[in-house]
Amino acid sequence: MRLLTGDTAEGAAGGVTVAAGSISGVGTNAVDAAGAVDISGGSSPYSAGGVVSVAAGSGIDGGELQLKSGDGASGSGGAGGVVRVRAGDGDRESTSASNGGGLELRAGDAQGAGSIGGKVTVAGGAGAGSGGSVAVTAGDGLDNGSSGGSLSLESGGGGGAEGTSGDVTLASSRTELGSGAVNVASGTVTGPSGEASGPVRLGSGSATDAGAGHVALAAGTSGSGDGAQLKLSAGGATSEASIGGQVAIEAGAGRAGGGRLDLSGGAAASGQSGSVSIGSCLAGPDGGAATGDVSLSSSEAGSATGADTGRLVLATGRSAHGASGSIDIATGSSTAADIAISVGESSEIGRAHV
User: What is the CA radius of gyration of the chain?
Assistant: First the structure.
């Protein structure tokens, strides 16, 4: 079946309108719906189903393709209609693997020099009480032991040897009152499987012939009040005889030398700069347990002849017009405690300088 209007050499060509009937009566039952329009391809149990193709026309600029649900009637308080775009299911009765249909949402390509490919915008609707949410969720695994679908967010690749890939920005929107939080976390394991929850990795990519990208983790600047906190903590453990998670901060390895690790308090435009505190945490309240040790040392030297270990320097800063800071070495209050200063064993005679 073919339904079309005539062509024209000049002026506008004829349009085609396919519409169902409306309901205009005031006393109409609210259960009754206006007429529907159903367009479907043919079905076949032995071959592929028929294709339904809806395409706008070509031109100097291609024609728009608009797919829109109906508005709520004025004064009715009704909601706008839902737009559902869904791929077909696989064979529900098949005993072998039967995949569901894919869904591809893609903007058009642009081939001319310096041209830009089409943009894809997915946005929730504006609302007087609250804006609409946008949820992107991968599919669930249905069979026992199956895995859920992956969710990949990736920018486009650059063209040729000198092209760069696009940026990926994940941020809450700007606002005059308070911006929303950004949460990045793996899922919670709720069952008794004994499996760990998924790890979270934040890192830059590697570079074969250049320096890899930096990773900066920083809180925002406060225009008034104190600066925002940056908290890095490992997970707790609640089962018997378990140990809390470890926090490891380590500079990178290098052929000529390892990277430096700097730990310092914040600078102050006026007043005292920030302090640096390194200590173990309180022991359990049940008693009988010692607090954790605090060890400050350089690493062991390699096996090469003449390799020295690094120095350990404990010093206060210089002062141009005031007294330099003091150094206090003391044990905590106790029934008895010792302070021991010693040099390590060596084939040569070592000396302790005080």
Answer: 34
pLDDT digits (tens, 9 = 90+) for 305-326: 677 888 888 888 888 888 888 8
Longest dimension (CA), the chain: 108
Contact between 280 and 293 under an 8 Å Cβ cutoff? The reply is yes
For residue range 261-292, list pLDDT tens digits in order. Answer: 888 888 888 888 888 888 888 777 665 678 88
